[in-house]
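Technical annex B. To support the medicinal chemistry partners, we prepared a structural model of the target in complex with DQA, based solely on the information shown next.
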Amino acid sequence: MKILVINGPNLNMLGIREPDVYGHDTYEDLVRMITDAALGLGVEIEVFQSNHEGALVDKIQSAYGDADAIVINPAAYTHTSVAILDALKAVSMPAVEVHISNVSEREAFRQISYAGMACEKTYAGYGFDGYVMALEYLFKEYGDKK
Ligand code: DQA
């Protein structure tokens, strides 16, 4: 089983950006945690981050025929990007949405998730653990079929 993990804008600034919201651990720490979890599950993993909407759309499209499932934290594009929603619908593969913070308890403009409309599950507010929960969920649901 291969899972593509996609992270959107400003997540490369983890550890620096708003530590009261996102914690002190860095993006490198996050990648290490995801990689270790994938290794433990015996899942092949690719981790991608971009600050650009089109690059995120390109990466989602590239999963078609290459990956079996997607974990995505579209960051700010969660709340604005119909293009990312359409890309997830286009590739039509199991997808799980992750947010480090609990977006449901934040500002009104964070209450809509376009990407979430194409995801079968959302983990929000669990910090970095949400990514591991997403991998475990996808492995449990789809891993044995690979
Ligand atoms: C985020 C939440 C978004 O609202 C925000 O724009 C981010 C990060 C999270 O992981 O909590 O950049 O997706």
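Notes passed to the chemistry partners:
The chain has a mean pLDDT of 97.
The longest strand covers residues 2-7.
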